[in-house]
Amino acid sequence: MEWDTIRLEIEGQVGFLILDRPASLNAVNDQLILDLEEACKTIQADSNLRVIVLKGEGRAFCSGMDLRAAANRPATIEAIRTTWEPWERALQILDALDQLTIASIHGPCLGAGFELMLTCDFRIAANTAFFSSPQVLYGSPADATATYRLPQLIGLAKAKEIVILGERFDATKAEQWGLLTRVVEPERLVEETQNLAERCLQVGWKAAAAVKHLLARSWQLDVQTLEEEIDRGRAVALETTEFSESMELYREKRKPRV
C-alpha cells in the first residue's frame, strides 16, 4: 500500500512502513504527517500483522522536520497545533499498536525522526547513523510526548543532556546510553533487522502485546492496578493456543520454538 510520502509493504505477518521522501532525507512535512496517521490506522486494523519494521528510503531514516515547510507557516500556537496534532495522534497509534515495532535506522535520525524512533519497541541502527533532538535550539520544546518518555529509557540526567542541549551523537553512544537494541555494520542492517523481526514472530503473540503495554504503563500504575492488568493480559493470552502448546512441548520434553 502506498500514500504520497509513505509505503506499507507486507511480507507474511511483517509489515514494512517506509518513509518515502528520499530527496529530502525523509523530512517530515504536512503530507507525511497525514500519510503516517492513515498508515498507522491501516496497520492497527490489520489483525494478521504481528511485526512492523519502520525505516527510511534512500540515505536517511528521517532528517527531522521539513524546515522549508516550517518557515512558511505562521508562527502562532494555532498554526503549530494544527500541524502537529495529527503527528502526535500518529505516534500515539504507533506506540499503542499490539504489533511489535522495530525502527531500522541508517543515516540521520533527527528531531521528528528521533521522536518516531522512540515510539518503537526495538531500535536497531547502522554504526553510521547519528541522532539528535534539536528543537530547543530552534526555540521550541520537543513536539511529541514520546520524547518525554526518554528518562524511562536512559535516565533523567542523560535525557536532559540530549533534549535541552540538542547535540548530535553517534550510534555507539546511543547504544551505550540504552537507546538502541543493537548496532551493526551498514551492510548488515537489512539482514539483522530481518533476524530481529523473525525473533519477534517466535514469541507468544498475545502475551507479548500484553507485556509491551504493561511495561509502558508500569511507571504509572499502583501495585493493585498492575496486578489487575496482568490478570487481564493473562486471560487474553490464554484465549490463544500458544500457552497450551508450550506446555504440551514441556510435557513431551521437546524443545520450544524459541
List the helices and strands and how they pair.
Elements: E1 6-11, E2 14-19, H1 30-44, E3 51-56, H2 67-71, H3 77-96, E4 100-105, E5 108-110, H4 112-118, E6 122-126, E7 130-132, H5 150-154, H6 156-165, E8 169-170, H7 171-176, E9 182-184, H8 189-202, H9 205-217, H10 223-238, H11 242-251
Parallel strand pairs: 2-3, 3-4, 4-6, 5-7, 6-9
Antiparallel strand pairs: 1-2, 7-8
Explain what you see.
The protein is an alpha/beta fold and 258 residues long. The chain folds into two domains: 6-202, 2-enoyl-CoA Hydratase, Chain A, domain 1 (Alpha-Beta Complex), CATH 3.90.226; 205-251. The protein is 47% helix and 16% strand. It is built from eleven helices and nine strands. The protein has helices at 30-44, 67-71, 77-96, 112-118, 150-154, 156-165, 171-176, 189-202, 205-217, 223-238, 242-251; strands at residues 6-11, 14-19, 51-56, 100-105, 108-110, 122-126, 130-132, 169-170, 182-184. The strands form two sheets. It has a six-stranded mixed β-sheet, with helices on both faces. It has a three-stranded mixed β-sheet with strand order 5-7-8. It is globular. The relative contact order is 0.10.
Please supply descriptive tags for the structure shown above:
258 residues, alpha/beta, 2-enoyl-CoA Hydratase, Chain A, domain 1, six-stranded mixed sheet, three-stranded mixed sheet, 9 strands
CATH class of the largest domain: Alpha Beta
Sketch the topology as an H/E string, one letter per element: EEHEHHEEHEEHHEHEHHHH
Strand content: 15-25%
Give the oligomeric state of the chains in this entry, treating copies of one chain as homo and distinct chains as hetero.
single chain
CATH homolog superfamily of the largest domain: 2-enoyl-CoA Hydratase, Chain A, domain 1
Unreliable runs: none
**The number of domains:** 2
Number of helices: 11
- Overall shape: globular
**For the report, how would you describe the main beta sheet?**
6 strands, mixed
- The strand count comes to 9
Structural classification: alpha/beta
Instruction: Give the rounded overall mean pLDDT.
Output: 88
The end-to-end span amounts to 31 Å
Fold-level CATH name of the largest domain: 2-enoyl-CoA Hydratase, Chain A, domain 1
Placed side by side, the strands forming the largest sheet appear as: 1-2-3-4-6-9
Task: Specify the helix fraction band.
Answer: 40-55%
